[in-house]
Design a protein that fits this description.
Radius of gyration: 26 Å
Distance between the termini: 35 Å
Number of helices: 11
Length: about 280
């Protein structure tokens, strides 16, 4: 077992490092940062500048969750997906500057054919190949054909959604909306995906944009009623969980001094919503 002075193993995932921290039982060697990390689940150590946040789409696999083998497989699948799907608009724009009008027209015609192939594959429920066709079309469709590219991104998002690649589908919806900010289908698809991934605030914002463009849209109007209570319920639950974690943290820090959080009383200012903390001399232990 590593003691608290051992350098953190950066080759491990965040989940594995957290599990290692939880397994440490020598409380005499714990620092305050380790106590905070144990109770709140948040590391107090500043990340290196080279660290990047990685979001991996849902991938199924056999074996114990969190094992090195499954993590490696998940990363490999994600890396392959990113390589297959990556579209570099800037490089494509630079490349197209050297093409003639006839060559650009030929690329657009071929992109249209690929899109139709993708549509047919989608209808046949071959969503993986459908997404591949849309990717090939995007790599040919001229970047100045904004509406056509928006449709290709939205169609690829639909295919990825069927494959349960929700994070990647959201990214494609976002690209579609960048090309066409008034694209209702892309806004509705992204709003739905946001709700499915519990990003309720983002979902509600997209539905509001839909209503600005289409005040009579039934799906968006229903979401305006459905989502606010869910957001409030989620926020209250998160607040209660955080207050419980802070109380546990406070008790661990105060215990060496013969105190606990019961020695303190929190009072909320009804006007500002802020809290003040008062010491109670004769609190029950």
């Amino acid at each position: 077992m590593n003691n608290s002075g051992t350098k953190q193993d950066t080759s491990k995932s965040d989940d594995e490092q957290f599990e290692d921290a939880r397994s440490k039982h020598d409380s005499n060697e714990r620092s305050v940062d380790e106590v905070i990390e144990k109770v709140t689940g948040m590391s107090m150590k500043l990340p290196n500048e080279s660290d990047t946040e990685e979001f991996v789409d849902c991938v199924s696999g056999d074996g114990a969750a969190g094992s090195d083998e499954n993590l490696s497989a998940s990363k490999a699948v994600q890396t392959a997906a990113e390589a297959d799907d990556f579209i570099d608009d800037e490089s494509q724009r630079d490349y197209e500057m050297g093409l003639t009008e006839e060559e650009l027209a030929a690329n657009k015609a071929k992109a249209d054919e690929l899109k139709q192939e993708g549509n047919e594959l989608f209808k046949q429920s071959d969503h993986h190949q459908s997404a591949t066709m849309y990717t090939k079309a995007l790599r040919l469709c001229p970047v100045d054909r904004k509406n056509d590219r928006a449709i290709l991104y939205a169609n690829r998002a639909a295919a990825k959604s069927k494959l349960d690649l929700k994070a990647s589908a959201i990214e494609d919806c976002t690209k579609a909306i960048e090309y066409n900010p008034k694209y209702l289908k892309a806004l509705l698809r992204r709003a739905n995906l946001y709700e499915e991934t519990d990003k309720l605030d983002e979902s509600l914002e997209d539905y509001r944009k839909v209503l600005e463009l289409d005040p009579g849209n039934g799906e968006a109007r229903a979401a305006q009623v459905r989502l606010p209570p869910k957001i409030t319920e989620r926020n209250e639950r998160l607040k209660e969980e955080m207050m419980g974690k802070l109380k546990d943290l406070g008790n661990m820090i105060l215990r060496p001094f013969g105190l606990s959080t019961q020695n303190f009383q929190m009072q909320q200012d009804p006007q500002t919503g802020s809290y003040s903390i008062n010491f109670k001399q004769n609190a029950d232990q």
